[in-house]
Amino acid sequence: MAGLVEIENVSKSYDKDAESVAVLDNITLSVPDGEFLALMGPSGSGKSTLLNLIAGIDRPSKGRVVVGGVDLGSLSETGLAKWRSTHVGFIFQFYNLMPVLTAFENVELPLHLTNLPKKKRSEHVARVLDIVGLGDRVKHYPNQLSGGQQQRVAIARAIVSDPTLLVADEPTGDLDRHSAEEIMTLLSRLNKELGKTIVMVTHDPHAAEKANVQRHLDKGTLS
User: Fold this and answer.
1) Which burial class, exposed, middle or buried, applies to 101 when counting CB atoms under 10 A from its CB (0-12, 13-18, 19+)?
2) Euclidean distance between the first and final Cα of the chain, in Å?
3) Would residue 209 be called left, alpha or beta, if left means φ above 0 and alpha means ψ between -120 and 50 degrees?
4) Who is most buried in 13, 115, 187, 199, counting CB within 10 A?
């Protein structure tokens, strides 16, 4: 059975100072629906580049990236942006919250791209803030929340539109050990209880232990 994510013979190079720098070399990877995959490797190994290809942020130099049966290479830039907004939830190392918006308003942002009426948007936001344990923090601004709480808001924002796929780029990289453990427990719950497919980049072996599968990248090669 084909995976939710199918990466077929993908290579990626960037032009730098009139030279072509290879970042990924002939990567093939299948991620089943409902999987929690950790991509590990040293800095510069190509982890974030591979994550960006899976999320439709970047395009491969060679090969195919297929997610949910959609060949991302067949989409225009506009089509790709629309696909991302519907199918991918993003979790970043530094949260990327809007400082002038409350937790509620930050989580609601992706829903403004949908046709949901205001009442339905509010119901969705309240539900996911409860899921991440912040139902009592809806009116708090980011600077009134701890780092771990801000990352929970970011996770709520990532799941509020019920995306096909969650991609997490070093989601515990800016957190202390206790907060990191809480965030990884939450991601594990989202995978096991809600069936969310998660692809996570991390260099932290403690974080990777929460994933079902670990794969290693080194010098652009997957093992």
Assistant:
1) middle
2) 21
3) alpha
4) 199
